[in-house]
């Protein structure tokens, strides 16, 4: 094998270290950074591994994996997860930090601050391990890959913050390994360091990190990273000039909504929420809210769209809740279905139909599918060992049992799945099982059950998956989880349970049983659609015309990617199978998990009691949507995002654009004479719009939201540079220029109102009322059009957002903190014994104080820039208010009283 490398190759460290650690015998070939390893490739591809078979491997991570496999070291699921996280999350973050350090000359503290959360994620994972490595007793390919990615930015483990002890220890161990030392000496030579710097200088920040900067007003060069061709500028100007005439006619679907031949027919489902509890913010973002954003986007694209969901009402969870509340299962379903419905209505979830699974249609369709499976011999009968509680005199369903996980030793594992390691388990495998009802120790007994023969269906499943993955969009975690099931080999899956509350099994010998919820529940998508329309089969037995999108959290993936598809494939009735499976990671709450029993976290029925509008909740949840890794809700971050991104950025721009029309032009959009700079702006906005569409086509919701914020930043900068409030008072040419800037700005505000619809429907509607945007304009195309032409009359303009105050947020944080506050980690507002030098007696948070100190410095510089450029007074006042707010938070984090001096001004004589 030949390994082609160049000095200073950013990925060279990992492949060399992996070769050494695995003992792979390779011949190293040095090539220039821009050399062509394979002549017919248009771009250089280094590193590259030329196998003896003649095949080339170009992916650095794939090369590393190949070396370890060659040495007989099999990858675990955890290893694969780390490699995927490194590629999607760690690499972009580190590259951006390196760009700031090597190219822009930022200091080490600034560089580490930029990736602090990423480093903390690794540290937290290492802390939970019993070994010093990421995945096992010895260094794995994941250890090598992550170390190599981090090395250029860390190099010396002592530069790591003190609180990241586990990460520091791991990094020190990796640095001392001989393969790692040899790789450093070989790649990062003095000449290699220069090559590495040259590589970074050629990369714009946007290429190194997909996320936009979160500042209020980026510098001009930050917004002008992407160069535009003359053709792009001219095309944007031509498209703009066509105006609303270029829009297609808005699609008005029939009622009920049914597939239409020749149109794009999109069927959207979100995982059916269990009826037995109140959904928390993590549940909402993981399923219904994410699906709602996509459904609203589809409608804006004129696609024929149906979005259905409903409560999952059968199974053990309902029986358990009924016992707790002293109600019948049906009464529990009726009670909580109403709760769910009200919560989703308040969050503006735009279901076309929200139903439930306890309906005659559910029984009919589930039993029909069961009979088809029975007729095609894809069901098995077997004796199952189950836990039986002699005190309760019944077999215990999975959720009536808790015990110690046999895989990770988590002490509160359920009888069907461990919430910590995520593995599916059988209740009899639990260590020290306990009946949840009486707390007694159950015994193992046998019972006859029916199984879906997954091994028999595995070939058909793999063939279908290959096609679905080739043509559809599955999130990385959905693909990974599905592959792990297939890699381990499918096993027969039990589809019946010894329960009373469920869909009856229509077969002699099993009539005292019901269908297992994970066989029955996905069929709820079909039965809920059947309750919506008698022609439900036109959606669910029409794969030729219908695209199916499933939205869920990652724990639901196996049932939607393996079990349910196998059920429908085995039934052989031309069912519509999922084309796009969209799964999120988990949203945590502050430093822990949501817990209704302990009063920790915000649940759906509580959000409206906070006084914070639904659209603010939607915005923040979507802003931190856990797409690539787990994320965490933070009250302080909510305050910052509301006051900076919404109030000072988006809201400030839309309000200014509308106010200029009202104040200077009597409420009518003025004539516009576009110059070169205006046309360039149109092209930049068009590019953001196209990226927005491309991201949402791939259901990258979080990144698409940042495109909207970027458009408003372009608008703010455009207004600030051209100063229409000054030009309107000047000569005729200046007044004409003021009109052009105002007209373009208010059209950008109009575009924002359309792009914002999927994310913040109420705010979008408010903007459109204020600007009097015609309903016919609510269509998303790939071009920025002049939808508010000269002479268009707008309405009354008023602010869109209100500032969130620190004391208000602190009160909410305390209210929803439950039992998570303890001596080691007191909340910022908690009283405790005074420490030396902390006269106020307030709890201190050194880490947060450090972050806020950096934010105060940045915001102070921003205020000074505004004053130097003689910006509009209102904008300066808003920036100063944000600065004072940050100083208050800094004072609290430092354990001081939150008293900040008022801004200085001229004394009155």
UniProtKB/TrEMBL annotation:
GO biological processes: methionyl-tRNA aminoacylation
Annotated GST C-terminal domain residues: 72-200
Assigned EC number: 6.1.1.10
UniProt domain WHEP-TRS: residue ranges: 848-904
Keyword annotations of the record: Aminoacyl-tRNA synthetase, ATP-binding, Cytoplasm, Ligase, Nucleotide-binding, Protein biosynthesis, RNA-binding
GO molecular function: ATP binding; methionine-tRNA ligase activity; RNA binding
Cellular component terms (Gene Ontology): aminoacyl-tRNA synthetase multienzyme complex; cytosol
CDD domains from the UniProt entry: Anticodon_Ia_Met, MetRS_core, WHEPGMRS_RNA
Compartments where found: Cytoplasm
One Pfam match: tRNA-synt_1g
Compositional bias annotation for Polar residues: 856-868
Stretch list, region Disordered: 818-872
Enzyme class (EC, first level): ligase
Keyword Translocase: no
Record's keyword annotation contains Ligase: yes
HAMAP family recorded: Met_tRNA_synth_type1
Entry similarity comment: Belongs to the class-I aminoacyl-tRNA synthetase family.
Name this protein carries in UniProt: Methionine--tRNA ligase, cytoplasmic
Organism: Pelusios castaneus (West African mud turtle)
Upper taxonomic lineage: Eukaryota, Metazoa, Chordata, Craniata, Vertebrata
């Amino acid at each position: 094998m030949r390994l082609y490398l160049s000095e200073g190759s950013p990925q060279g460290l990992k492949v060399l270290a992996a070769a050494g650690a695995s003992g792979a015998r390779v011949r190293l070939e040095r090539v220039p950074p821009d050399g062509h390893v394979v002549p017919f490739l248009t771009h250089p591809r280094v590193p590259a591994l030329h196998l003896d078979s003649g095949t080339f491997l170009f992916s650095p991570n794939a090369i590393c994996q190949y070396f370890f496999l060659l040495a007989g070291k099999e990858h675990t699921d955890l290893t694969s997860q780390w490699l995927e996280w490194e590629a999607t999350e760690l690499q972009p973050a580190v590259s951006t930090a390196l760009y700031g350090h090597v190219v822009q000359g930022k200091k080490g503290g600034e560089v580490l601050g930029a990736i602090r959360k990423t480093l903390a994620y690794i540290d937290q994972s290492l802390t939970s391990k019993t070994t010093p490595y990421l995945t096992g007793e010895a260094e794995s390919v994941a250890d090598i890959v992550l170390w190599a990615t981090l090395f250029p930015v860390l190099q010396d483990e002592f530069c790591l913050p003190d609180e990241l002890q586990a990460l520091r220890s791991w990094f020190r161990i990796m640095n001392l390994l001989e393969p790692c030392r040899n790789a450093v000496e070989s790649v990062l030579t003095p000449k290699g360091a220069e090559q590495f710097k040259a590589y970074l200088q050629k990369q714009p920040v946007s290429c190194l990190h997909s996320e936009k900067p979160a500042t209020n007003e980026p510098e001009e060069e930050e917004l002008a990273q992407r160069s535009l061709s003359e053709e792009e500028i001219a095309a944007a100007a031509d498209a703009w000039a066509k105006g609303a005439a270029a829009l297609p006619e808005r699609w008005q679907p029939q009622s009920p909504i049914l597939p239409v031949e020749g149109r794009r027919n999109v069927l959207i489902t979100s995982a059916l929420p269990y009826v037995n509890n109140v959904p928390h913010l993590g549940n909402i973002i993981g399923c219904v809210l994410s699906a709602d954003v996509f459904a609203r986007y589809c409608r804006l694209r004129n696609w024929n769209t149906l979005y259905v969901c409903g409560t999952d009402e059968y199974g053990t969870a309902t029986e358990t809740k009924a016992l707790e509340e002293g109600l019948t299962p049906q009464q529990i379903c009726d009670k909580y279905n109403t709760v769910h419905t009200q919560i989703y209505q308040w969050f503006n979830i735009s279901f076309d139909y929200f139903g439930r699974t306890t309906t005659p249609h559910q029984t009919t369709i589930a039993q029909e599918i069961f009979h088809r499976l029975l007729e095609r011999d894809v069901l098995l009968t077997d004796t199952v060992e189950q836990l039986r509680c002699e005190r309760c005199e019944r077999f215990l369903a999975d959720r009536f049992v808790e015990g110690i996980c046999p895989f990770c030793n988590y002490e509160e594992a359920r009888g069907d799945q461990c919430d910590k390691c995520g593995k599916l388990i059988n209740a009899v495998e639990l260590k020290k099982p306990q009946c949840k009802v009486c707390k007694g120790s159950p015994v193992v007994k046998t019972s006859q059950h029916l199984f879906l023969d997954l091994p028999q269906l595995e070939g058909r499943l793999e063939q279908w998956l290959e096609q679905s993955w080739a043509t559809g969009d599955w999130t990385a975690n959905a693909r990974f989880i599905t592959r792990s099931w297939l890699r381990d080999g499918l096993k027969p899956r039990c589809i019946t349970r010894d329960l009373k509350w469920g869909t009856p099994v229509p077969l002699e010998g099993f009539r005292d049983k019901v269908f297992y919820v994970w066989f029955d529940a996905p069929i709820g998508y079909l039965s809920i659609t059947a309750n919506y329309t008698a022609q439900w089969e036109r959606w669910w037995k029409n794969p030729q015309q219908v695209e199916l999108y499933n939205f869920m959290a990652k724990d639901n993936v196996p049932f939607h990617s393996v079990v349910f598809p196998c059920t429908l494939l085995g039934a052989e009735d031309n069912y519509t199978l999922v084309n796009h499976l969209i799964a999120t990671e988990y949203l945590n709450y502050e430093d822990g998990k949501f817990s209704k029993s302990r009063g920790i976290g915000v649940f759906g029925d509580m959000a409206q009691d906070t006084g914070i509008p639904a659209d603010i909740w939607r915005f923040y949840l979507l802003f931190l949507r856990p797409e690539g890794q787990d994320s965490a809700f933070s009250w302080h971050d909510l305050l910052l995002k509301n006051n900076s991104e919404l109030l000072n950025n988006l809201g400030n721009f839309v309000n200014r654009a509308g106010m200029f029309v009202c104040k200077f032009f009597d409420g009518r959009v003025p004539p516009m004479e576009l110059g070169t700079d205006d046309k360039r702006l149109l092209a930049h906005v068009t590019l953001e719009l196209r990226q927005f569409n491309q991201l949402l086509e791939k259901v990258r919701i979080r990144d698409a939201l940042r495109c909207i914020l970027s458009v408003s930043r372009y608008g703010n900068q455009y207004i600030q540079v051209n100063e229409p409030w000054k030009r309107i008072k000047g000569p005729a040419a200046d007044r004409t220029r003021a009109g052009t800037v105002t007209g373009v700005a208010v059209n950008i505000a109009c575009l924002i109102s359309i792009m914002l619809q999927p994310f913040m429907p109420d705010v979008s509607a408010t903007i459109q009322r204020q600007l009097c945007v015609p309903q016919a304009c609510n269509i998303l195309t790939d071009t920025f059009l002049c939808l508010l032409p000269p002479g268009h009359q707008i309405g009354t303009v008023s602010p869109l957002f209100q500032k969130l105050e620190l004391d208000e947020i602190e009160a909410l944080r305390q209210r929803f903190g439950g039992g998570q506050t303890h001596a080691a980690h007191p909340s910022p507002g908690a009283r405790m014994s005074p420490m030396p030098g902390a006269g106020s007696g307030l709890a201190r948070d050194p880490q947060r104080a450090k972050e806020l100190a950096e934010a105060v410095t940045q915001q102070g510089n921003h205020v000074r820039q505004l004053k130097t450029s003689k910006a509009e007074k209102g904008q300066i006042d808003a920036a100063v208010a944000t600065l004072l707010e940050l100083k208050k938070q800094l004072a609290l984090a430092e354990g001081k009283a939150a008293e900040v001096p008022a801004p200085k001004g001229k004394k009155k004589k």
